[in-house]
Design a protein that fits this description.
By secondary structure, the protein is of the alpha/beta class. It has 12 helices and 12 strands.
């Protein structure tokens, strides 16, 4: 959840980086009493995210700057649309514009890409989810942008849920069906009934010994669509079925049609391109 504290902290960190001891250009060129009105304009179509960060950026730079007519989070827009109007002391507007743009361009890019993935599976019940492949320090913001684009959030951190991957199983000495079940045995009791347990597999024959450990979900990693269908049938309603690995806009529709319930896509955050937005005066 994008809380006021998270927004305030992210903006404060960004401003400390961008204006550590003031805006030299603005302080020496712009009169203190000058005012300006600017518009946040889309140069290309997309889905908006980052509004709270825009507002907080200008609030911290100069509380007299006003952000008006800002579009809602998750709103779709076309090239040329005005997404917000920023007006007030010119020094504050000009000093805060790059940080505000950086946040909104980055987050709108993630929201836009997420919306494309969501649209590609709209004919199925499958959900699109993000991963932990996020920019260090910006995870909460980027996961917020995924939600703005219509996606779902996977676990936020390593503290939120149990996800046993191939390296965990290897470290536990799980090399066959019997040792895999033994390695996972008792995990449900140790974790407690409220903790989600997901186990990753990369072959169909790994599914039965994992199911014996009663996980919440099974992640089918880098499976072909044929094997995904077989995995879904084998698991049935005994666990949530998730697919991941190499998911693209070209392949996600076919993956969703196999019957998996969740498709996790690292590209949503680590591969999204910043959207082209501009702050135009006048």
């Amino acid at each position: 959840m994008l809380t006021p504290h998270l927004v305030s902290t992210a903006v404060r960190t960004a401003l400390a980086e961008d204006i550590p001891w003031g805006d030299l250009t603005v302080s020496l060129t712009i009169p203190a009493d000058a005012t300006v009105t600017t518009r946040l304009v889309a140069r290309e179509p997309g889905v908006f995210a980052g509004g709270p960060l825009i507002i907080e950026t200008f609030r911290q730079v100069d509380p007299l700057v006003r952000v008006n007519e800002i579009v809602p989070e998750g709103a779709a827009f076309l090239a040329g649309d005005v997404l917000a109007v920023i007006a007030g002391p010119a020094r504050g507007v000009l000093t805060g514009e790059r940080v505000a743009l950086n946040f909104s361009q980055r987050l709108s890019g993630i929201a836009t890409l997420t919306a494309r993935f969501v649209a590609a599976v709209a004919h199925t019940p499958a959900r699109i989810a993000d991963t932990r492949k996020t920019t260090p320090g910006l995870r909460a913001l980027e996961k917020h942008a995924v939600r703005a684009g219509g996606g779902a959030n996977h676990r936020f951190s390593l503290s939120d849920a149990i996800m046993v991957k191939d390296n965990h199983l290897a470290a536990l000495g799980a090399r066959d069906a019997e040792s895999t079940t033994a390695a996972l045995s008792g995990l449900r009791e140790r974790a407690g009934h409220t903790t989600s347990i997901v186990v990753e597999v990369d072959r169909l024959d790994q599914i039965p010994p994992v199911l014996a450990a009663r996980p919440t979900g099974i992640l089918l990693d880098n499976f072909s669509c044929e094997d995904l269908r077989a995995g879904v049938a084998l698991i049935g309603d005994r666990a949530i079925v998730e697919a991941s690995g190499g998911v693209t806009l070209d392949t996600v529709g076919g993956i969703a049609e196999t019957g998996v319930e969740v498709i996790s896509v690292g590209q949503l955050t680590h591969g999204a391109r910043a959207l082209d937005l501009g702050l135009d005066a006048g």
